[in-house]
Design brief:
- By secondary structure, this protein is α+β, with helices and mostly antiparallel strands.
- The protein has a single domain, classed as Peptide methionine sulphoxide reductase MsrA (Peptide Methionine Sulfoxide Reductase, Chain A, 2-Layer Sandwich), CATH 3.30.1060.10.
- The protein is built from six helices and eight strands.
- Helix 1 runs parallel beside helix 6 and helix 3 packs parallel to helix 4.
């Protein structure tokens, strides 16, 4: 199994999208690459901690190669949007791909460069090693499963797309 951390705006919808993909075996919402220890949702919400809302994604690279996962990640974000996805605004909603293994950067960069060719504006997606990650509290885990009518910036059709995308 491999692990990567993906920031795609509000982590409720990002987690729900990512866990639909065949080959993803575990997801967890939390806060990535910030400046404090053990941040709370309320602290991160102030945009003063440096954290991005992110999802820890554990996946089987035999079933779901990293390249395909990163391609599917780009399908759920507006990659040129700075500190905003949908109506959600703030540095905590920035987009980013945070990796553990240095060799993964090459694969991530290959997909990043492919996506960039489709835009005239520069992509606003961070690509960095993961420095830290703190899980969100239980109320933020699998939020859209617990609250099917809960707020989400992602359209419902995207979840169906994710279910079929790597089948």
């Amino acid at each position: 199994m491999k692990t990567i951390f993906l920031a795609a705006g509000c982590f409720w919808g990002a987690q729900h999208y990512l866990k639909q993909i065949h080959g993803v075996v575990e997801t967890e919402t939390g806060f990535a690459n910030g400046n404090t220890d053990n941040p709370t949702y309320k602290e991160v919400y102030t945009d003063r901690t440096g954290y991005a809302e992110a999802v820890r994604v554990v996946f089987d690279p035999v079933v779901l190669p990293l390249k395909r996962l990163v391609q599917l990640y780009f399908d759920c974000i507006e990659p040129t949007s700075v500190n905003q996805q949908g109506e959600d605004r703030g540095t905590r909603y920035r987009t980013g791909i945070y990796y553990i293994e240095p060799e993964d950067r090459l694969t991530i960069q290959e997909v990043y460069d492919d996506v960039q060719r489709g835009y005239s504006a520069p992509l606003a997606v961070e690509v960095e090693p993961i420095r830290n990650f703190f899980p969100a509290d239980e109320s933020h885990q699998d939020y859209l499963d617990k609250h099917p009518d809960g707020y989400c910036h992602l359209p419902q059709a995207l979840f169906e797309y994710a279910r079929r995308a790597n089948g």
